[in-house]
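name: query_chain
kind: protein
chains: 1
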Amino acid sequence: MTQLSTAQRRIYKAAVRLFAEKGATQLNVSDLAQEAGVARGTIYNNVENMDQLFQQVASQLSKEMHERVYQSFAAVEDPAERLSIGIRLFIRRTHEEPHWGAFLNRFALSDASLREMFYSQATTDVLTGLGNGRYRFPQSHLASVISLIACSTLGAMLLVLEGVKTWRDAGSEAAELVLRALGVPEDEAQQLANIELPLLPALD
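structure:
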C-alpha cells in the first residue's frame, strides 16, 4: 500500500472529519487547510485534484483498514472467530476515532472502495466457513449474508456514535447476532463474540 507523507496524513485525516461533518464529497481548499492546520500551498502540493480527493481518501482508508484487520487475525483459522474479531474491531475503532466511524456511516454503502473494505475479506471467510460446515445457509444467499454483516456492523457503529451502546456491548451483540444468523450455535456464538479482542496493528 502506498505510504503517505506526514503532511498527507494530516490532510487526509482532516478531510475525513470534514466529509463526515458536512455529509458532502466536495471540500474547498481553505476549509481543508484550516482543519488540517496547514497552509493552502501545502494542500496544493499534496493533493493532485480536489475533485478527486474524496475518492483518494476513501480508497486509502479502505486499504489501510483492510490490511490492519487482516493482520490482526492472520494467525486465526476459524472463520467464525475471524468474523467476530473483524466486526468488533470496526466498532472499537469507531469509539476511538468517531470521525472515522461517522465517515463510514455516511458513505460506506454508497462508495465502491469503502464497500470493498467490508466485503472482500468477509466474503472469503464466509465462503470458507460455508465450505467446511461452520456456517449453514444456501450459497445463493451469499450476497445477502455479506450485506447483513456490513449493515449490522455499521448499525452497531452508529449506536456507539450516538452514545446508545458502549463499543464493547455493541460489538459483542452485533458479532453474536451475525454468527447466530449464519448458523453458529447460540452458546458458541456468544463465546466467540466476547473473546479478548486483539490490538489493531499499526502499518509500517
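note: The radius of gyration is 18 Å.
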